[in-house]
């Protein structure tokens, strides 16, 4: 049954519980671009019709302000690397990158008195760094389990079994990772050899995930509301779903909680590999903190040495791996190593690989293909070096028959140079070591790329989330390393706890805190060693610098700017610069441009490039003042007007940069990030890969064209299936039902709303029609569902254009004839 939330943050709103989406694998033809399409989600079935009647009737009663679909959010898929005893933990803690160490040591601020409410998978509060108990007097003082161990919203165990204990007791055999415990340690863990960001803060844990699987929006919203009612100072959410509409139910609740004065800090998502517009909901909720990830400067790595050298190098084992890689002689695994197709063609493999390790470069074909080709040639193991400028990586090797490891690009070239000089051998160490990484203090490759689907500024800020050492449940190893915006989010949550503690009871707003962090954030280059600035679409305002955010007394609002696209250009913003200090400040105003994001690979279908590529297109800014001087207690206004790059609007280049207030005294510089798009998002096609199409099977083996007739016998036949690939997002897809004469008689199924763009990991959606419809009268949908009489019909799938006007901007498609018997 649907649930009505009796709460002032959801006053007058109803959350609709639909049938949970399920997934089915397919490897159908894409008809134009690829040989396969991955996962499809079932979005609508005939079983929804009874609820549709109820909800439509209530929605039209005037007593309901909005109707929201309940979506399923997958548990964060973050694996942990268990850390051995005796490692150099001080190096692994990234507090020097964020100035957290200075806040602890110089300001004696450890977050005491601040409560952070975490919504996650539970916590092992008996961990020695997490207090050893639950309730009054313990570090983990608040919270509850809303679901139980067996809960999975996308399975037969979708009914929650709640209790008052948020303990995560899931064992390794369940596939659990200890995600919530790891997150908790990042915020406030404290032991003799480990210090979280705010080690004396109090925690609450609202458990919304079972040992595996997913959670539904209604459960997550319950947790948000309960945390708010408990009186936490901060809500931290390392979860999300990859559709970027701020109108999603959980995003709306995040917006309203933030407006009530509680910062809601949420992971931006880990879909960076799938390109632009992958920031997740609820992080895109207006006012919420959408958190990107930076890599730690250090990581715990397996290591090896090249014989004859004292230098130690890092490597990562392929996952999974059939065995540990042996020591021994290493030789080139291709006649032309570095060709971008090393060992992809067995005929190019030298004969001397037999009995030896082989080194090849990443590229062109799957790691399994490289490994198995080399195995057939007699190699005993494979060392794969990364592409140019890239660091150690973990090869995906589910079917490799010999062990495979990944190493950095520059180390691979060093080994190749040694091979050119003569016989070369390598020795792999038995124990891991703490090693520097060359991506340290830059945006993590997995971190999702903005903006929101409304072109709001997102992500908003970054924490350290790549290679983070923290607590694990005792049954899962006690200590370990994870990576993700899941880790960056609690890092920012702990940072906000330190900021709140510094106020000593003074009142402020979530918006002020976020802006203060944005004003003084560190801005990374696109890659270390490059003389540029990475895009705000990736890093938001940059990495938190907590000491500066607390100590600096000049504040700029807003903290981030979106100029929108050029068809809807918000051409001028006014910045308000306030001097809360006790001395005059002065600044020179500059435009620091960033790299641009090139989102699409071609102009034919506008499918997103995965990952996105980068360019040099930059905007010019006009300022109302070239310099600013402000007396203590005073404010000044600065108008910022954009002149977008002169790039081709058909390319939809995503430009950005930072308004820099360069200090002329001892104060820190202040930066305000901006972003925009050249072009008109409204012109982009919604559908791709020759979809929608009508088929009679989930694998799309037969497609019914506009001149074909699909015969649907409701007593024994397969109900018509529609496959849809979303090149770009849409707020709504309507499904008008036409009779044999072409007259619209109603709608075949409930509108599909707030849909995200498809990615290689989430290719599209599947909708099945079971011969019912919602009739219309004078073009108004009636709150009833009828069984379609036997006859011939066509079904439309009309998608609202991105940022389009619902009165006129639709991408229309109509099926061939469906004959219902």
Describe the fold and architecture.
The chain is an alpha+beta fold and 821 residues long. It folds into 4 domains: 203 residues, no CATH class; 336 residues, 3-Layer(aba) Sandwich (Rossmann fold); 138 residues, Glucose Oxidase, domain 1 (3-Layer(bba) Sandwich), CATH 3.50.30; 123 residues, Immunoglobulin-like (Sandwich). Helices cover 15% and strands 30% of the residues. It contains 13 helices and 54 strands. Strands 41, 44, 45, 48, 49, 50, 51 and 54 form an 8-stranded mixed β-sheet that branches. Strands 9-12-8-14-15-16-25 form a 7-stranded parallel β-sheet, sandwiched between helices. It has a 7-stranded mixed β-barrel with strand order 17-18-22-21-20-19-23. Strand 39 and strand 40 form a beta hairpin. Helix 5 packs parallel to helix 10 and helix 6 runs parallel beside helix 7. It is globular. It starts with a strand and ends with a strand. The N terminus is likely disordered.
Give the topology, please.
Elements: E1 3-4, E2 13-16, E3 22-24, E4 40-42, H1 49-59, E5 66-69, E6 72-74, E7 81-82, H2 89-92, H3 95-98, H4 100-106, E8 115-120, E9 140-145, H5 179-188, E10 190-191, E11 194-195, E12 202-207, E13 214-216, H6 217-230, E14 234-237, H7 249-259, E15 264-267, E16 289-295, E17 298-306, E18 312-317, E19 328-332, E20 357-361, H8 367-376, E21 381-385, E22 404-407, H9 409-421, E23 425-428, E24 433-436, E25 461-466, E26 468-471, E27 479-482, H10 485-502, H11 510-519, H12 536-539, H13 546-551, E28 554-557, E29 561-565, E30 572-579, E31 585-593, E32 596-600, E33 608-615, E34 620-623, E35 627-630, E36 635-643, E37 654-663, E38 670-677, E39 693-695, E40 703-704, E41 709-712, E42 721-724, E43 730-734, E44 736-738, E45 744-747, E46 752-755, E47 764-768, E48 772-777, E49 780-781, E50 786-787, E51 791-795, E52 798-800, E53 810-811, E54 817-820
Parallel strand pairs: 2-5, 4-47, 8-12, 8-14, 9-12, 14-15, 15-16, 16-25, 19-20, 20-21, 21-22, 29-38, 41-54
Antiparallel strand pairs: 1-2, 3-4, 6-13, 7-27, 10-11, 17-18, 17-23, 17-24, 18-22, 19-23, 26-27, 28-30, 30-36, 31-35, 31-37, 32-33, 34-36, 37-38, 39-40, 39-42, 42-47, 43-46, 43-52, 44-45, 44-51, 45-48, 48-49, 48-50, 51-54, 52-53
């Amino acid at each position: 049954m649907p649930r009505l939330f009796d709460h002032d943050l959801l006053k007058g709103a109803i959350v609709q519980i639909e049938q949970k989406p399920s997934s089915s694998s397919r490897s159908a033809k894409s008809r134009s671009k690829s040989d396969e399409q991955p996962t499809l989600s079932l979005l609508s079935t005939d079983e929804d019709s009874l609820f549709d009647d109820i909800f439509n009737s209530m929605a039209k009663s005037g007593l309901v302000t909005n109707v929201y679909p309940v979506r399923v959010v997958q548990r964060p898929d973050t694996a942990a690397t268990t850390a051995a005893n005796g490692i150099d933990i001080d190096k692994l803690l990234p507090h020097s990158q964020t100035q957290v160490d200075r806040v602890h040591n110089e300001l004696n601020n450890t977050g005491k008195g601040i409560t952070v409410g975490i919504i996650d998978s539970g916590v092992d509060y008996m961990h020695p760094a997490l207090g050893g108990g639950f309730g009054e007097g313990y570090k983990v003082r608040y919270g509850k389990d809303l679901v139980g161990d067996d809960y999975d919203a996308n399975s037969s165990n979708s009914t929650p079994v709640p209790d008052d204990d948020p303990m995560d007791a899931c064992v390794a055999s369940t596939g659990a990772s200890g995600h919530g415990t790891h997150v908790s340690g990042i915020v406030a863990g404290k032991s003799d050899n480990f210090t979280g960001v705010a080690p004396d803060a109090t925690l609450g844990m609202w458990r919304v995930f079972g040992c595996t699987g997913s959670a539904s929006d209604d459960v997550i919203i319950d947790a948000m509301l309960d945390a708010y009612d408990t009186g936490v100072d901060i809500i931290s959410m390392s979860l999300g779903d990859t559709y970027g509409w701020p109108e999603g139910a959980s995003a709306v609740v995040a917006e309203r909680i933030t407006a009530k004065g509680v910062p809601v800090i949420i992971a931006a998502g880990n879909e960076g590999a799938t390109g632009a517009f992958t920031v997740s909901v609820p992080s895109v909720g207006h006012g919420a903190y959408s958190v990107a990830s930076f890599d730690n400067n250090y990581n715990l790595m397996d290591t090896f040495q090249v014989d004859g050298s004292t230098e130690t190098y890092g490597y990562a084992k392929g996952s999974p791996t059939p065995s540990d890689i042996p020591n021994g002689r290493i030789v080139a695994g291709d006649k032309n190593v570095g060709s971008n197709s090393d060992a992809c063609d067995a005929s190019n493999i030298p004969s001397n690989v037999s009995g030896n390790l082989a080194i090849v470069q990443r590229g062109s074909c799957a790691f399994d293909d490289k490994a198995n080709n080399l195995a057939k040639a007699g190699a005993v193991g494979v060392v794969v070096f990364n592409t140019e400028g890239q660091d150690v990586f973990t090869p995906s090797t589910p079917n490799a028959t010999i062990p495979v490891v990944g190493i950095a690009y520059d180390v691979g070239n060093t080994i190749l140079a040694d091979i050119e000089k003569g016989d070369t051998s390598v020795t792999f160490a038995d124990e891991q070591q703490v090693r520097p990484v060359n991506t340290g203090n830059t945006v993590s490759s997995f971190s999702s790329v903005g903006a929101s689907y409304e072109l709001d500024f997102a992500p908003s800020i970054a924490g350290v989330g790549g290679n983070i050492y923290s607590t694990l449940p005792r049954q899962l190893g006690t200590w370990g390393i994870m990576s993700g915006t899941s880790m960056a989010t609690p890092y920012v949550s702990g940072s906000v706890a330190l900021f709140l503690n510094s106020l000593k009871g003074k009142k402020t707003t979530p918006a002020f805190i976020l802006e203060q962090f944005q004003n003084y954030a560190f801005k990374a280059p696109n890659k270390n060693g490059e003389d540029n600035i990475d895009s705000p679409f990736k890093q938001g305002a940059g990495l938190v610098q907590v000491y500066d955010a607390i100590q600096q007394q000049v504040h700029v609002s807003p903290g981030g700017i979106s100029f929108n696209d050029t068809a809807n250009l918000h051409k001028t913003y006014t910045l308000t610069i306030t001097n809360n200090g006790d001395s005059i400040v002065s600044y020179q105003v500059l435009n620091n441009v960033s790299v641009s994001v090139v989102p699409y690979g071609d102009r034919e279908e506008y499918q997103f490039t995965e990952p996105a590529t980068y360019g040099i297109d930059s905007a010019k800014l006009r300022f109302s003042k070239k310099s600013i001087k402000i007396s203590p207690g005073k404010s000044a206004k600065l108008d910022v007007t954009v002149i977008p790059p002169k790039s081709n609007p058909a390319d939809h280049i995503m430009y950005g940069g930072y308004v820099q207030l360069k200090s002329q005294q001892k104060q820190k510089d202040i930066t305000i990030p901006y972003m925009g798009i050249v072009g008109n998002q409204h012109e982009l096609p919604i559908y791709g890969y020759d979809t929608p199409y009508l088929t009679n099977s989930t694998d799309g083996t037969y497609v019914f064209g506009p001149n074909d007739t699909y015969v649907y016998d409701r007593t024994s036949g397969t109900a018509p299936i529609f496959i849809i690939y979303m090149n770009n997002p849409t707020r709504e897809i309507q499904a008008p039902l036409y009779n044999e004469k072409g007259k619209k008689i109603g709608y075949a199924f409930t509108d599909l709303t707030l849909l995200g763009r498809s990615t290689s990991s989430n290719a599209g959606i599947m909708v099945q029609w079971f011969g019912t419809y919602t009739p219309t009268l004078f073009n108004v949908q009636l709150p009833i569902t009828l069984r379609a009489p036997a006859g011939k019909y066509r079904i439309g799938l009309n998608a609202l254009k991105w940022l389009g006007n619902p009165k006129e901007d639709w991408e229309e498609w109509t099926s061939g004839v469906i004959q219902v018997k």
